[in-house]
């Protein structure tokens, strides 16, 4: 577009405007250093981190074992094309398949990309292997699957779709926990059902085991693939390495990202062995997928998780955190529900909680929301009891003060 055709705001240029696109409403804090459960800003203020970059730094900030592997890799090799064998990638995949129900892995760089790969694999399996032309993916209201065109279409929240029409065809959304709606949404075009075991962005809603069972039966009956989005729930977050283990479930495909690299960008799509033949050389790829750097980090993260029993520790700390929250907040009229799994915890409140998040930051505690009324707590999985106590006391104080001010 020529300069004179640009809208007024764009012509104003750099004067006072950020050189970044305004895709985030950023908090007025610049974090510059992190260690374990703690972060520091550029003014020297210290924060207890109960958000972990949104379920990313599951082993805390700069975990020693991972840092050492990454530094060692930095001296060896940064990047090589996937046109070559990458030993680190095969090792990381072997570790992942050894500790999960999956048999094969595709590495990429983010959660959205992992879900894209899952959608592509499901379609291709039906179209190329079974030869039935199926393409449709059924997802659930309030789900979140990413920001690419396909994954935002899969997402069951209208706000991520505004202004991006036309959306790609082949997606359908039904209400969570509604077996009838799900069954009637299935047609001869349906290829797969995609679900999170705990809807995280959508408000921290764990899926009911009876509903998971119904999904399994429908997949069986109609020949559908089951895709579990473990981008937020995976890597120990819910008290198991992956959340579908709580349900005794073996999904055909599941995805991982956030916690997979301890903060280094990496994603993975994992699937059962019979899906291998759906992909051939050239059918999918990623320049940066499975680079030696990210693979060193994935190996170190997984080894630490397994050797130090991190998922089990997350389960125990999660129980302790929920018990402490009930003690301090259980009887409070502002608190409607405390729910979640492991260290993915939601506190549903009677009203908007955005102000509480900001006041928490001013007092040195970082946490986030999941929808307007839900406080979401995502500490690292090695968080100590003392740190949990400290966060819960401050949170109780924040809620007391918030509700006292409101009732004046
Ligand atoms: C964060 C998230 C994604 C998207 O991951 P990106 O790495 O931001 O692309 C997808 N699904 C779920 C459940 C998530 O929480």
From TrEMBL:
GO terms for cellular component: cytoplasm. It comes from the Bacteria. Keywords: Amino-acid biosynthesis, Aminotransferase, Arginine biosynthesis, Cytoplasm, Pyridoxal phosphate, Transferase. It catalyses: N(2)-acetyl-L-ornithine + 2-oxoglutarate = N-acetyl-L-glutamate 5-semialdehyde + L-glutamate. Transmembrane segments: none annotated. The keyword Zinc-finger does not apply. N(2)-acetyl-L-ornithine binds at residues 147, 286. Binds 1 pyridoxal phosphate per subunit. GO terms for biological process: L-arginine biosynthetic process. The keyword Metal-binding does not apply. Pathway: Amino-acid biosynthesis; L-arginine biosynthesis; N(2)-acetyl-L-ornithine from L-glutamate: step 4/4. GO terms for molecular function: identical protein binding; N2-acetyl-L-ornithine:2-oxoglutarate 5-aminotransferase activity; pyridoxal phosphate binding. Pyridoxal 5'-phosphate binds at residues 111-112, 144, 229-232, 287. Its cofactor is pyridoxal 5'-phosphate. Its EC number is 2.6.1.11. It is found in: Cytoplasm. Its main location: cytoplasm. The modification N6-(pyridoxal phosphate)lysine is found at residue 258. May also have succinyldiaminopimelate aminotransferase activity, thus carrying out the corresponding step in lysine biosynthesis. Belongs to the class-III pyridoxal-phosphate-dependent aminotransferase family. ArgD subfamily. Homodimer. This is Acetylornithine aminotransferase. It comes from Paenibacillus algicola. The lineage of its organism: Bacteria, Bacillati, Bacillota, Bacilli, Bacillales. The gene is argD.
